[in-house]
From TrEMBL:
Occurrences of domain Beta-lactamase-related (ranges): 31-350
Transmembrane regions: none
Name of the featured protein: Serine hydrolase domain-containing protein
Gene Ontology MF terms in the entry: hydrolase activity
UniProt xrefs under SUPFAM superfamilies: beta-lactamase/transpeptidase-like
Pfam families assigned: Beta-lactamase, DUF7586
Keywords: Hydrolase
Domain of life of the organism encoding this protein: Bacteria
């Protein structure tokens, strides 16, 4: 192998002025250290901000001496699960499946069909972590031609379910095989074709595919005690493909990260993407550092909350993390079975950019003339739940935001209008709950009913139907 190459000439690291030179050097230093300390033949990483890739870096060489390129594909392993989850959420949004539906409704005769689609997405279905028989990642998918071959364990019918469904988080690769089977049953097309038509083509992920497309990095295992290596076999995973089949590049993964940040109506709306990021599994007691949503991992790193997924298959490790608060995504890929900590690296890259160069807020602008709804404008201002002062604000997207006026933590939520004149909570305590504007016979506003709580214009307004009534003597002192 020839000496390691630096970042490839012509890469965004050389051309882009979007990041400060000091930030770019920090990013390259992190990539170089990860490649050297992890002893990866090649490692590539990229960072996205404001919807586009603003930096990428490459270290190492292929065994033939060729410097790895930014467009080289690597296998991304379990990051594939997030793509599969997006396909399932699309089915939900189209009304073709319900997340609370049992699998049996769409994929019968599996023996575990009473588990729900939501449980499979969040790894709470209680299924086994792996398939029976030989190591599925290193053997041909043809060894597991049917779902029974993925789920059965040592001939015991209960072997595929070591845990009670819904009780705990237990990562399950076969669970995502079942979700892939669900997609195929409902869509009437192969899983890989659904990924191409419904995700990669609409998002312009031209270098993401189910089979490797040249140029791609060869996968290697590096000896744990010597600087030598052997090639890893590349297997088609067959039925297990929805759990780990895909190949991609750092740039494509970052562009997929932009979708995980903001959604894309061609694929999945922003609300559904946010729903995927909500923890689906019970959190462990104490200060948790990681949990799982619907097809995405959620972690805390460097004081920030990141969403994404890690992945590995023999010969490859990969990670994609996005920081929703900062609008930053970072991906890291390497062609080694173990060694480089791509998960930690991708998180470090995202945090570096988020903290070294915080985003510039968009300028405030008043609403255009003609877009001001006077009936909504009269609702804004102070409202009281009991004696607690809250502020109701009209947001730029035509929604409402309710929160405590002192800025302290409390029951803060955003609301979106429904066609029937009510409002539905989008997040916080009132997520999914209903806000009603209650008017008097003359049309003036009496109070707000928020999930049965009465909010009035003054604390315990005697003219409003406050539950329990208001003492007729009013406010008074002692004595």
């Amino acid at each position: 192998m020839t000496p390691s190459a630096d970042t490839a000439p012509g890469s965004p690291d050389h051309e882009s002025c979007d990041l400060l030179a000091s930030t770019r050097r920090s990013l390259l230093r992190s990539v170089a250290a990860s490649q050297a300390e992890g002893r990866a033949p090649a490692l590539v990483a990229a960072v996205l901000r404001d919807g586009r890739v603003v930096w990428s870096g490459v270290r190492g060489t292929d065994v033939d001496g060729r410097a790895p390129g930014e467009e080289d594909q690597y296998r991304i392993g379990s990051i594939t699960k997030t793509f599969t989850a997006v396909l399932v959420m699309r089915l939900r949004d189209e009304g073709l499946v319900g997340l609370a539906d049992p699998l049996e409704k769409y994929v019968p005769d599996t023996g575990v069909g009473d588990v729900t689609i939501r449980q499979l997405l969040g790894h709470t279905a209680g299924l086994a972590a792996e398939t029976p028989g030989q190591w599925w990642e290193r053997t041909p998918g043809t060894l597991r031609p049917d779902l029974a071959d993925v789920l059965a364990a040592d001939g015991k019918p209960d072997g595929a379910r070591p845990h009670e469904a819904g009780r705990i988080f237990h990562y399950s690769n076969p669970g995502y095989t079942l979700l892939g089977a669900l997609v195929e049953a409902v869509r009437g097309m192969p899983w890989a074709e659904a990924v191409r038509r419904e995700i990669t083509e609409p998002l312009g992920l031209t270098r993401t595919s189910a089979q490797p497309e040249a140029p791609y990095a060869e996968g290697w295992a590096v000896h744990p005690w010597a600087d030598v290596l052997i090639p890893e076999p590349v297997e088609d995973l067959g039925l297990m493909a929805p759990a780990g089949q895909l190949w991609s590049t750092a740039g494509d993964l970052c562009r997929f990260g932009a979708f995980l940040l903001h959604g894309d109506d061609r694929v999945l709306c922003a609300d559904s993407v946010r729903e995927m990021r909500v923890p689906a599994a019970p959190l462990e007691a104490g200060n948790w550092s990681g949990t799982y949503g619907l097809g995405v991992q959620v972690i805390r790193a460097g004081g920030r909350e990141l969403v994404g997924h890690g992945g590995s298959l023999p010969g490859y490790v990969a990670a994609l993390w996005v920081d929703p608060a900062a609008g930053v995504a970072a991906a890291a890929l390497a062609n080694a079975t173990s060694g480089p900590a791509t998960g930690a690296l991708a998180a470090e890259l995202a945090i570096t950019v988020a903290e070294a160069e915080p985003g510039i807020p968009e300028p405030w602008r008043p609403l255009p003339e003609g877009q001001v709804d006077q009936t909504l404008l009269e609702l804004t201002g102070a409202w009281y739940w009991g004696t607690l002062a809250h502020g109701l604000r009209l947001t730029g997207d035509g929604g409402l935001s309710l929160g405590k006026l002192d800025g302290s933590a409390g029951r803060t939520s955003r609301f979106r209008a429904r066609p029937d004149g009510t409002w539905v909570g989008l997040d916080g305590y009132y997520a999914g709950e209903t806000l009603r504007v209650v008017r008097r016979p003359d049309g003036t506003v009496s109070h707000l009913d928020v999930a049965s709580f009465v909010f009035t214009r003054q604390a315990y307004d005697p003219g409003a139907p406050v539950p329990g009534g208001v003492d007729a003597r009013g406010w008074r002192g002692i004595g």
